[in-house]
Amino acid sequence: MDHVNVIIVGAGLSGVGAAAHLKRNCPSKTFTLLEGRSAVGGTWDLFRYPGIRSDSDMHTLGYSFKPWTEAKAIADGPSIRKYVNETADEFDIRRHIRFDHKVQTASWDSEQARWILTSALPDGSSASVSGDFLFMCGGYYSYDKPHRPEFPGEDRYQGQVLHPQFWPEDLDYQGKKVIVIGSGATAMTMVPSMTQKGAQVTMVQRSPTYVVSRPAEDKIANTLRKWLPEKVAYAITRLKNTTLSGYFYRRTRTHPERTKAQLLQMATQNLGEDMVKAHFTPSYNPWDQRMCLIPDGDLYKALNQKQAQVVTGEIDTWTESGLKMADGTEVEGDIMVTATGITLTVMSGIQFDLDGTPINFPDTFTYK
């Protein structure tokens, strides 16, 4: 069995960043990355649905040691995937990655003071590696099983049903009517993107969420990069963005009603009072739940141009041609996209044990 100083689980944005940190700051330490898939990138390689992008700016989501140099701070998935792969190559990390190693168990051996991780391989065999330190970078959701609630009457629907987590690359939706169930970050991304390629999209949501429009390009960051050394400009931009984000969050906690009024006013300026009142006025305060970011108001533009529409309410049943809402509204669609979220997992769903005794994380974690 191989032994290393550090075992990193996952070769996505976090895992590659952890490996680069070891390369830069702990060059004498040995390490390996266990990656369940056959590619670098994690989330940014897995998800391929239309419009896939970040909903945080890449000056703060990106690495502190590798400046984000693309013009758009709210970046598309392929650009982020490229960034992660460039980092892996720049720091010679790829040779440390064991691809197609899906970790099943993580065991702590107190006598030898080490971790032993066992992975399932594609051929049905298993492989183990031991390490002194375990760095979990495998994400917080299941890559294999998305959150997919069952709806009444699904078997009656005659169209195509898709989940964004497993998007077919050859799907042709030009000129089609598309129903997107959900109004989270994925839905907010997909709806305007699909309209740009000729689809007529209806977003069906049970209840509204807060939507905040923000420029895709950070003009201050792009200007600073023209006049200052790259790393200096990047550091200033990171400080600016983290400071502003922290201020906004604190404001939602200390002045929730005032912040809510301001957010709704900004939405009203783009969509009009009737649309906002019906479909974009949540029943809760800002940041009680996650808010949705849209770059350059792309969702607003799709709605204003009548390429997309929103239906709010409970789904009664699926029909042969779409959905029937609880209030009797009929929604027709050739394609049904269930943007209903991800399945959360703790520690990537790996079974942990301490000297052979299984660990039940709800018994060991604390909250607040």
What does this structure look like?
- With 368 residues, the chain is of the alpha/beta class.
- The chain folds into 2 domains: 2-143 and 344-363, 3-Layer(bba) Sandwich (FAD/NAD(P)-binding domain); 154-223 and 256-338, FAD/NAD(P)-binding domain.
- It has 10 helices and 18 strands.
- It has helices at residues 13-25, 43-46, 58-61, 77-90, 185-196, 219-227, 230-254, 256-271, 273-279, 298-304; strands at 2-9, 31-34, 97-98, 102-109, 114-120, 126-136, 160-162, 177-181, 200-205, 211-214, 292-295, 308-312, 315-318, 322-325, 330-332, 335-338, 351-354, 357-358.
- The strands form 4 sheets. The chain has an 8-stranded mixed sheet with strand order 3-2-1-6-5-4-17-18.
- Strand 4 (102-109) and strand 5 (114-120) form a beta hairpin.
- Helix 5 (185-196) crosses helix 10 and helix 6 runs antiparallel to helix 7.
- It starts with a strand and ends in a 10-residue tail after the last strand.
- The model has no long low-confidence stretch (mean pLDDT 96).
